[in-house]
Specification:
14 strands; 6-stranded mixed beta sheet; Nitrilase/N-carbamoyl-D-aminoacid amidohydrolase; elongated; alpha/beta; 566 residues; 42% helix
Length: 566
């Protein structure tokens, strides 16, 4: 009979789970390295497009047991004592980010002659850097580790803290935060309206790690109760919110979302410019009046009866994706005239475009922008992207890195410039909207929509994921956009060049969508905005309150263990 010696000195019969934990705890050398990387990689199957969160109940218990097995020499300096835990967390993170972000290499193949040499940097170098956050999280957790089941609170708090830092440091890169693993469907996204994605990370690590404490004798009951309560709340709150908040639509406003499906290799080819523009125009002209009325509420008269369409023609918003024009629109009056001819009365175009400030593109500031163009062909509003993609839209330390042959992926001399401010755009006959261009949608903490003055009627996310082909990248980007929409309680209108384009209500329910790699339009009504969520009004404050409670529990458990030892 196998017997396991417990840290408290007691011995007991080992069941299968205990034998597994004991085997993991005693691993050394390459086996420990492989398991640490594998546990992180396994967790990516909870992410889009796989959406199988049950793997978290394997990956995180393995991480807990791996950290249990870290040997700390009390005679060494603090950094040396924490180094083994850091390495374990780093290996876990390296596996997670390589398996979750390998598709970044696809962007280097669009212009393989210029960028193929940098594929290892994208596929291995970036994950190696991002894994530092998980290494630091593991080291911090191990500082307050205990022999109690409450040690998973230390892990949850540390991971949540460093995921928060990953979202803000060095311009931020919160892609595939652990909390995304816990939100594969609208039912499981609703908690983000309270605590944001960082709060979801705190919840996810506690719940996913809970099977690891089944072998513990100290603190197991309370921890399992907390994990079960969090999971029950996560499910119950989602169910309640979806059942009590049906989709409602803005009266007399409809959408036509265009997905042109232009390959990235053709996007800026001079000889393809007219063909690309023609495709946008033809899709805009392909009106489906029967489809356009789907979900669109009729105009109401003063006595509540439906008004005749002839008395109140619907306002139609046509949405084109990021960088729709393969030229500078303001230098092509013929193109503007054609747009005016294409748009019918009460149709407004919202389109991604490069905007220039200066005499020519070589010597001027260029912005990644959104134009609003009315049915007379007038550009009535423009907003610039404020949070640019490093190495994609601009090159950090440009002069230094260009000396090594590096350049940004965007084919723009000197890269794009960042806009000064992000504010909503008013529309005639329709609610205002907040443009979030491509990458900006993954930063919900930067979106100020919690007051009547700043709150728009919906979010427009125009993007171009053609860089990444038919990989997990576009699916992951969509999920992050959906979580932002639910977190702030605003409908999501998303036009993606090659997909995935969607119209979602404020609760993440899809009203219409187009598959990755397809060409067409979505014609539906505009969902009505929900009330400002707790997250929209208070930002990360609820998350920090949860973090403090979790961290206090972990520290108290550590102090009690030390008191017993002393």
């Amino acid at each position: 009979m196998t017997v396991i010696a417990r840290p408290d000195g007691r011995e007991h019969d080992a069941n299968l789970l205990e034998r597994l934990a004991g085997w993991v705890l005693l691993l050394e050398g390459w086996r420990r390295v492989v398991l640490s990387i594998g546990a992180g990689a396994l967790c990516t199957f909870a992410l889009p497009p796989y959406n199988f969160p049950a793997v978290g109940f394997i990956g995180f218990p393995l991480l807990v047991w791996l950290l249990d097995g870290v040997v700390i020499d009390p005679g060494r300096s603090l950094i040396r004592r924490m180094a083994p835990a850091f390495v374990t967390g780093w290996l876990f993170g390296f596996g997670y980010f390589v398996a979750g972000l390998w598709w970044l290499g696809a962007a280097m193949l669009v212009d393989a002659a210029a960028f193929a040499a940098f594929i290892p940097l994208a596929v291995l170098g970036l994950p190696a850097i991002l894994a530092i956050y998980y290494g630091l999280a593991a080291a911090l957790a191990r500082l307050v580790w205990s022999d109690s089941a409450l040690r998973i609170f230390a892990l949850a708090g540390a991971f949540a803290l460093f995921e928060y830092l990953r979202a803000i440091l060095f311009t931020g890169f919160p892609w595939n935060e652990v909390g995304v693993m816990a939100a594969p469907a609208p039912l499981l996204m609703q908690t983000s309206s309270l605590v944001g994605v960082h709060g979801l990370t705190l919840l996810a690590v506690i719940v996913f790690s809970s099977p690891a404490v089944l072998i513990d004798r100290r603190g197991r009951g309370p921890v399992l109760v907390v994990a079960a309560a969090l999971l029950t709340f996560h499910l119950g709150f989602g169910l309640w919110r979806l059942q009590t908040h049906p989709t409602e639509f803005v009266e007399n406003v409809r959408l036509r979302v265009v997905q042109p499906n232009i390959e990235q290799s053709q996007k800026w080819e001079v000889n393809q410019a007219e063909t690309i523009f023609d495709r946008h125009i033809s899709l805009t002209e392909a009106r489906d009046d029967s489809a356009a009325t789907q979900g669109a509420a009729p105009a109401q008269s003063s006595d509540g009866a439906a008004a005749r369409t002839s008395e109140a023609p619907p306002q139609t918003l046509v949405i084109w994706p990021e960088s729709s024009f393969p030229f500078l629109l303001t230098e092509r009056p013929d193109a503007i005239a054609r747009i005016a001819d294409t748009l019918q009365p009460n149709e407004t175009l919202i389109a991604g475009a490069a905007r220039i400030e200066g005499p020519d593109i070589a010597t001027s500031r260029v912005y990644n922008s959104v134009y609003v163009i009315d049915d007379e062909g007038e550009i009535v509003a423009a907003r610039d992207k404020t949070h640019l993609v490093p190495f994609g839209e601009y090159l950090p330390f440009q002069e230094f890195l260009e000396g090594f042959g590096l350049s940004q992926l965007a084919e723009m001399p000197g890269g794009f410039s960042a806009g000064a401010a992000r504010v909503k755009v008013p529309l005639d006959g329709a609610p205002s909207f907040l443009p979030l261009i491509c990458y900006e949608i993954i930063f919900p903490g930067e979106i100020d929509v919690g007051t009547p003055e700043t709150r728009p009627g919906f979010l427009v996310n125009d993007t171009n994921d053609a860089w990444y082909g038919a990989t997990p990248g576009p699916y992951q980007h969509l999920r992050l956009a959906e979580l932002t929409s639910v977190a702030v309680g605003l409908p999501l209108v998303r036009s993606a060049n090659t997909g995935i384009s969607v119209v979602n209500d404020s609760y993440g329910r899809q009203i219409g969508g187009l598959a990755l790699g397809s060409t067409g339009t979505i014609e539906v009504g505009l969902p009505r905005a929900g009330a400002a969520t707790l997250f929209a009004r208070f930002g990360s404050l609820p998350f920090w309150l949860g973090f403090i409670v979790t961290w206090v529990a972990a520290v108290v458990s550590r102090l009690r263990m030390r008191a017993r030892i002393d």
